[in-house]
């Protein structure tokens, strides 16, 4: 089973974000927060298209050289784990094997690194982490969180997930979280209790199927509306 002890830097592209979160052209005309984005190229690609995206992650307290070192340290172990547990993942003509996955991830992270200094200077990359964010209420139209909440269910308890989603709801009018699996491609132990708790607080909570699926069964997104 695929396991990690800690959160690792691992970047995904704009196309993947759009598939994971069903982000439409209409969504992208609003203000978007990417929370726990890490070294994703989402922000760089979206900004180049004229969209308004802010990414936040504690990784952004470091400089480019330090982030690159962290990527280099974790990259091979992540790839080795994926090879060992390849049956947990969905392979396709578009992404046929672990080597193709590694190439795609490194390309996304390289694009992030090229954009990071300019983006941080302009306020697009913010050093911040859940469950407390340095943004005013209703700063964003949509707040998304990819491959952090629920994925690291063993490392973070149910209360952390509730507090984090409530904080995302404070700064964003709508919140989307993907995937609803934890490491090992198993359903997150926290989803049911988190959904029930949010509903008792009056939130409109929906679990929706999306086009994106890399972990087997990892094709569902949590959407939370106030």
Order of strands across the biggest sheet?
3-2-1-4-5-9-8
Segments where pLDDT lies below 50 for 5+ residues? none
DSSP summary, beta strand count:
9
Provide the gyration radius in Å: 16 Å
Distance linking N and C termini: 36 Å
Query: What is the level 1 CATH name?
Result: Alpha Beta
Inertia-based shape: globular
| Class computed from helices, strands and strand pairing | alpha/beta
CATH topology tier name: Rossmann fold
**Strand-residue fraction?**
15-25%
Protein name: Methyltransferase type 11 domain-containing protein
Organism: Lacipirellula limnantheis
InterPro entries: SAM-dependent_MTases_sf
Q: How would you portray this structure in words?
A:
This protein has 226 residues and is of the alpha/beta class. The protein has one domain (14-225): Rossmann fold. Helix content is 37%, strand content 19%. The chain has helices at residues 14-20, 42-48, 64-84, 98-121, 158-171, 191-200, and strands spanning 31-35, 52-56, 125-126, 140-146, 172-178, 181-182, 186-187, 204-209, 220-225. The termini are far apart.
């Amino acid at each position: 089973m695929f396991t990690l002890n800690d959160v690792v830097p691992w970047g995904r592209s704009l196309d993947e974000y759009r598939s994971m979160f069903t982000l439409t052209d209409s969504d992208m005309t609003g203000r978007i927060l990417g929370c726990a984005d890490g070294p994703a190229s989402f922000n760089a690609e979206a900004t180049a298209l004229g969209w308004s995206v802010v990414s936040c992650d504690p990784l952004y307290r470091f400089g480019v050289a330090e982030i690159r070192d962290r990527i280099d340290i974790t990259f091979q172990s992540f790839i080795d784990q994926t090879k060992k547990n390849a049956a947990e993942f969905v392979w396709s003509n578009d992404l046929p094997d672990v080597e193709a996955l590694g190439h795609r991830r490194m390309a996304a992270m390289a694009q992030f690194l090229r954009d990071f200094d300019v983006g941080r200077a302009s306020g697009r990359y913010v050093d911040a982490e859940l469950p407390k964010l340095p943004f005013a209420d209703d700063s964003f139209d949509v707040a998304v969180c990819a491959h952090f909440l629920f994925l690291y269910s063993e490392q973070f308890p149910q209360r952390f997930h509730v507090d984090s989603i409530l904080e995302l709801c404070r700064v964003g009018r709508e919140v989307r979280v993907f995937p609803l699996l934890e490491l090992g491609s198993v359903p997150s132990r926290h989803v049911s209790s988190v959904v029930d708790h949010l509903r008792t607080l009056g939130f409109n909570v929906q679990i929706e199927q999306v086009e994106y699926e890399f972990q087997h069964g990892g094709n569902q997104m949590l959407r939370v509306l106030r």
